[in-house]
Write a structure and sequence with these properties.
- The chain folds into two domains: 214 residues, Glycogen Phosphorylase B (Rossmann fold), CATH 3.40.50; 159 residues, Glycogen Phosphorylase B (Rossmann fold).
- The longest helix has 17 residues.
- The two termini are 16 Å apart.
- By secondary structure, it is an alpha/beta fold.
- Strand 5 and strand 6 form a beta hairpin.
- Helix 1 crosses helix 17, helix 8 packs across helix 15 and helix 13 packs across helix 16.
Length: 392
Amino acid sequence: MTILVISSWHAAFDGRIFYKQCKTLANIGDVHLLTPGPKQKVYGMDGGSFSPGCYDKVNCYPLKTLAKRTGIIVKILRKIEQIFGFETLRIYKQSLAYIKKKSLKVDIIHVHEPELISIAHRIAQKHKAKLIYDAHEMHIAYPIDRYKFWGPLISALIFCRDRKQMPKCDAIIAVNEIIRSYHLPLNPEAKCIIIENSSIISEIPPIQSHSKLRLIHEGALSFSRGLKTMVELFKDPEIQEKYELHYVGKMGIREKKYLNQQPESVRACFVDKGWVQLSELPKVLHGEIGLILMEPKMNNILAGPPNKLYNYLAMGIPVLSVDLPASRMIIERFDTGEICLRDPKSIKAKLLHITKNIDHYRENCNVAHRHVIWSQDSRRLVDLYNDLLTQN
């Protein structure tokens, strides 16, 4: 089985795409992953670049796009490419060239952005291959978050595009029931399954004791993920005395500047653990309470639960989250933490409550992890691929 995976935006070593799906699929087929990477390099999640090649039995190859470049001129050019479809045409030509170079007979094409469906469908027709769209973002929500006036109009145009493109898919993978409910009516005949962002961490490590209780934030710590709320929380002397925040991931330039402007007593509570590969996460993700304090952006509300929720559960770390529908369902189903308001007083009260009942929540995390783990989702992914190949 030859599998072609294409993304126009995500890094090559994305947690969901590479570490979970591609590594799983490499056990049943020949996997080729095409992702953005100017200068003939493929990108990691930390922004680092790697030479094209075979990593963990997955063939990684860069696509020349503007996705990861910066600067005002480049952003304008990228927007023009997106509007007129030049970028997808560029990806289409490069994909065909790669297929020809490697002499591939593609059986299944798996894309991660809706704008790629049209070109992937053309490739699928040439090879009589099956087409899968993986919906782990709510793309229709992005314009509403970004453009106050034009956002709803752009989202309406995206819906029109989706209504035209989704029927071309043989299968749709959704990250949660909300996203599945959006896509399924657009193509009722497609196989439409849910594959969550469940964790690849298989064993819960021993509990470690710390001088201060550790709050954990896994993933890039940005304004949209609640940095300002966390800073306000740590202006409370009681919180400073009892807790410190360990963040495992990158922080942008603007966010670092904002944090450096805070009082020393606040800055001292933020501990940078750096970015690590997903496979190395168990070595650094140790703490008492995991935070999910995302801002109320439309994509944050509709997509998810985020990877960090599943990683917290896998590490036996109770969760304190703002009210995100998909995250709430898991937290309340297994009683693994608390839901709070985006307000320092509410967060503080919930933190103290979880701390007081930490053993109860830890035990429930152990139960939850046995139900939401990648080994189960991986079987659904493999079954989907096998089912598609047996179709006429």
